[in-house]
Specification:
Blueprint (H helix, E strand, L loop, with lengths): L1 E6 L4 E9 L4 E10 L1 H4 L7 H22 L7 E7 L3 H18 L3 E5 H7 L11 E6 L4 E6 L5 E6 L5 H11 L6 H9 L24 H13 L5 H27 L3 E5 L6 H14 L2 E3 L3 H4 L4 H14 L23
Parallel strand pairs: 1-4, 4-5, 6-9, 9-10
Antiparallel strand pairs: 1-2, 2-3, 6-7, 7-8
Helix pairs in contact: 2-3, 4-11, 5-6, 5-7, 6-8, 8-9
The structure holds adenosine-5'-triphosphate (ATP), magnesium ion and fe (iii) ion (FE).
Protein name: tRNA N6-adenosine threonylcarbamoyltransferase
Pfam families: TsaD
Family: Belongs to the KAE1 / TsaD family.
Amino acid sequence: MRVLAIESSCDETAVALVSCGPEDFRVEASLVSSQVELHRPFGGVVPEVASRRHLEVLYPLTEEVFRRHRPEELDLVAVTAGPGLPGSLVVGVSFAKALAYALGKPLAAADHVKAHTLAIFLEETPDFPFLSLVVSGGHTALFLVKSPTEHLLLGHTRDDAAGEAFDKVARLLGLGYPGGPVISRLAERGDPRKIALPRPMLESPDLDFSFSGLKTAVLNLVRSGRSFETADLCASFEEAVCEVLVEKARRALKALGLSTLVVSGGVAANRRLRQKFLEMGKEEGVRVLFPSPEYCTDNAAMVAVAGYFAYQDSGPAGLDLDIHARSLFPRLELSLT
Ligand code: ATP
Ligand code: MG
Ligand code: FE
């Protein structure tokens, strides 16, 4: 089944064409137009500016795909219906509805957070059930993934997401936006043990996270006037984030007796994070999988996979499909003792 997918939940406009089978996914086109430069002067995403740019870019991006692949060859139009910025989501969903209607093809709704997890199917085929850690700009969450469509929430961040923490720390160090790539680049030259930073929530008996305290610790250090090398601070901060993520995932794997872990979302592009997760996988005898960096950050190929599975599971979405700013996942409470 050939799926055309549209993604516009935040500051990336993306269109992809993916040939989807139950076990075999082949990306035929995956175009991403990033708005990073547009939002850089503001130090973060400005919602109104984002939706306007989605509106300008979606049509030419889709035309570009149709220059190489005929619209008649499509079987399904998939779109991110949430979570994300409401104004941005509305642009993508309206565009996808119009496209599906005009071409006479069914429409499928994809969840952006599930799509980050399901991106792995573009390159690998994990066995169910598996543990998924989504670490992105807006989310940090652990899921028990029982099937492509059944994702049970085990724990999530109580305040900032991991990516958000990278972005905020970069901002207060004057390193620009987005923070993840620049911090990880500087961290390569720094000493991760040089500056003592907290490991938030490692003591708590649940699978939740918290990153705002870590950001405050960095802020306090900067304000204290103590001298430090920026590279050391970046490395120490990155190490603290990675350690918490790895240890919580290790606990979840043990508690559930799972042998596969998928780590996805923009922060999963981080090299140190990938290295530490692979080390943990070796220690625990767990298969650790990551999508390629281009499928960790926002893209529409992952939306095609999520839309395909949603369509297989519950059929087409109607033309009255609505957007949702937040996703509500069924929660599985684990007692970790
Ligand atoms: P969400 O998926 O939660 O709605 P989003 O779509 O904005 O949020 P993504 O595009 O998946 O998030 O990821 C963007 C985030 O990933 C940003 O916070 C960015 O700083 C972070 N990021 C990107 N590359 C790296 C990296 N190499 N190291 C750490 N963080 C990174
Ligand atoms: Mg983004
Ligand atoms: Fe995302």
